[in-house]
C-alpha cells in the first residue's frame, strides 16, 4: 500500500510539472469545461482539471480524487469521453471546428487546403537536435557498436544535450540584461531550478571528464525520448507512417513518463556513487566528483526533480541506515556531517 501511495505521489508531481500551456489539447479540453466564472478563476479548480486532463491524455494510471464544487452541484460539464486513443478525438474536434468555419464563411465549393509545410521554428529545431542526440546516445550505449564509434557518439550526445538545453534556456528566459556579475547572478537565480539548466550542467560536467561512463547516457536517453515523442504526437498524428509504426510506442512513452523519470533519477544518483568509486583509480577527478555531487544536491531540492530524487534517497536511507547502525556505528558522525551539508 505504501509503495502504491509513493507511486501516486510521483505521478501527481509529474502532473503538476507538465507543460500544459504548450499542449494544444489542454486549451481545447479547458474550453469544453463549463463552470461558473468565479469557479474557473480558482487555482484549486484549475489544478483539479489539469490532473483530469493528465489522467486522460498522458497517464491513465494517475488517480484523481473527486472534487465537490461548492454552490454548484456538478455544473461543470466536461468534454465528451475519449475514444480508444486521444488522437482520433482531437481529429474529430478539429473536423467539427473546420466544418463550422467553412459553413460560416460560405465557401462551400472551396477545396480543402493542403497541410502547411513544417517550419523551422523553435520546437522544430529542438526536435531535430533531440532526435540527433537520441540516436547518438543509443549508439553510445549499445554493446554491439565498435568502441571508437561508441565513445565518439557518447561525447557528441553530451554536446548536443548541452546545446539543446542552452538554446531552450535562451528562448524561455532570454540572456542576462548586462554582462556584469550582478546581472548574471540575477539571471542565474531565475534559471537555476529549471530542468534545462540542470541538464546543461550535467552535460558540461560529464563532457570535460576523462571517464567514459556509458551509464550516464541513460538520463540523456530518457530526456530526449520524451521530447521527441511529444513533438511527434503534436505534429505528425495524422501521418500514415506515424499511425502505422510510431503511434503505439509514442502512446506508451507518454503514458510512462513517471517511470522514465524514476529510471533517470536512479541513474543520476548511481552515477554519483560511480564517481566516488573512480576516486580510487588513476582516472580520479576530485573536482569533477565534487561538482557532480553539488548538482545532485540541486536535483534533490529543485521542484522539477525533487520528488523523484527524494524518493530514491529515501529508499537508500531505508536500506543503508540499519546496516550502519548495526555494523558501523562509528560512521554516524560522518553521516551527520554529510546530511548537514546536503540539507543546507
Oligomerization state: single chain
What structural class results from the helix and strand content? mainly alpha
Tell me how many strands there are.
0
The helix count comes to 15
Distance between the termini: 32 Å
The sequence of SSEs as H and E is HHHHHHHHHHHHHHH
- Overall pLDDT confidence: 80
Shape category: globular
Task: Report the portion of residues in β strands.
Answer: under 5%
Number of domains: 2
Low-confidence stretches: 70-118
Tell me the radius of gyration: 24 Å
The major pleated sheet works out as: none
Helical content stands at: over 70%
What report would you give on this structure?
It is found in: Membrane. The chain crosses the membrane at residues 127-146, 152-173, 197-221, 262-282. It is a multi-pass membrane protein. The chain has 15 helices and no strands. With 344 residues, it is mainly alpha-helical. The protein has 2 domains: 2-91, no CATH class; 122-304, no CATH class. Helix 12 (257-278) packs antiparallel against helix 13 (286-301). 21% of the residues are buried. Mean pLDDT is 80; it is low at 70-118.
Q: How is the topology of this model organized?
A:
Elements lengths: L1 H16 L6 H8 L5 H4 L2 H15 L28 H20 L16 H20 L5 H27 L7 H11 L3 H13 L9 H19 L4 H16 L1 H22 L7 H16 L1 H25 L4 H12 L1
Helix pairs in contact: 1-14, 6-7, 6-10, 7-9, 9-13, 10-11, 10-12, 12-13, 12-14, 13-14
Main location: membrane
Membrane topology: Multi-pass membrane protein
Keywords: Membrane, Transmembrane, Transmembrane helix
Provide a concise account of the structure shown:
The protein is mainly α and 344 residues long.
Amino acid at each position: 500500500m505504501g509503495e502504491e501511495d509513493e507511486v501516486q505521489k510521483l505521478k501527481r508531481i509529474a502532473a503538476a510539472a507538465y507543460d500544459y500551456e504548450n499542449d494544444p489539447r489542454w486549451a481545447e479540453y479547458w474550453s469544453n469545461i463549463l463552470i461558473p466564472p468565479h469557479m474557473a478563476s480558482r487555482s484549486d479548480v484549475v489544478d483539479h482539471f489539469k490532473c483530469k486532463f493528465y489522467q486522460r491524455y498522458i497517464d491513465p494510471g494517475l488517480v484523481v480524487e473527486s472534487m465537490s464544487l461548492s454552490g454548484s452541484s456538478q455544473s461543470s460539464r466536461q468534454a465528451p469521453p475519449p475514444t480508444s486513443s486521444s488522437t482520433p478525438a482531437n481529429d474529430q474536434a478539429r473536423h467539427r471546428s473546420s466544418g463550422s468555419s467553412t459553413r460560416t464563411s460560405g465557401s462551400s465549393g472551396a477545396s480543402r487546403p493542403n497541410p502547411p509545410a513544417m517550419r523551422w521554428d523553435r520546437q522544430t529545431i529542438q526536435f531535430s537536435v533531440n532526435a540527433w542526440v537520441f540516436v547518438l546516445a543509443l549508439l553510445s550505449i549499445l554493446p554491439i557498436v565498435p568502441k571508437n564509434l561508441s565513445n565518439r557518439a557518447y561525447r557528441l550526445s553530451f554536446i548536443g544535450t548541452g546545446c539543446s538545453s542552452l538554446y531552450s534556456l535562451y528562448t524561455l528566459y532570454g540572456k542576462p540584461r548586462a554582462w556584469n556579475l550582478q546581472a548574471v547572478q540575477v539571471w542565474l537565480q531565475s534559471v537555476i531550478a529549471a530542468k534545462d539548466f540542470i541538464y546543461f550542467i550535467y552535460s558540461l560536467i560529464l563532457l570535460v571528464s576523462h571517464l567514459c561512463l556509458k551509464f550516464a547516457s541513460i538520463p540523456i536517453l530518457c530526456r530526449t525520448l520524451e521530447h521527441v515523442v511529444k513533438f511527434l504526437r503534436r505534429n505528425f498524428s495524422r501521418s500514415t507512417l506515424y499511425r502505422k509504426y510510431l503511434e503505439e510506442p509514442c502512446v506508451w512513452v507518454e503514458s510512462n513518463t513517471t517511470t522514465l523519470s524514476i529510471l533517470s533519477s536512479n541513474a543520476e544518483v548511481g552515477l554519483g556513487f560511480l564517481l566516488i568509486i573512480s576516486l580510487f583509480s588513476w582516472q580520479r577527478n576530485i573536482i569533477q566528483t565534487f561538482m557532480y555531487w553539488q548538482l545532485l544536491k540541486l536535483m534533490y531540492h529543485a521542484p522539477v526533480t525533487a520528488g523523484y530524487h527524494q524518493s530514491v534517497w529515501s529508499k537508500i536511507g531505508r536500506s543503508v541506515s540499519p546496516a550502519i547502525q548495526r555494523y558501523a556505528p562509528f560512521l554516524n558522525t560522518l553521516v551527520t556531517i554529510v546530511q548537514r551539508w546536503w540539507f543546507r
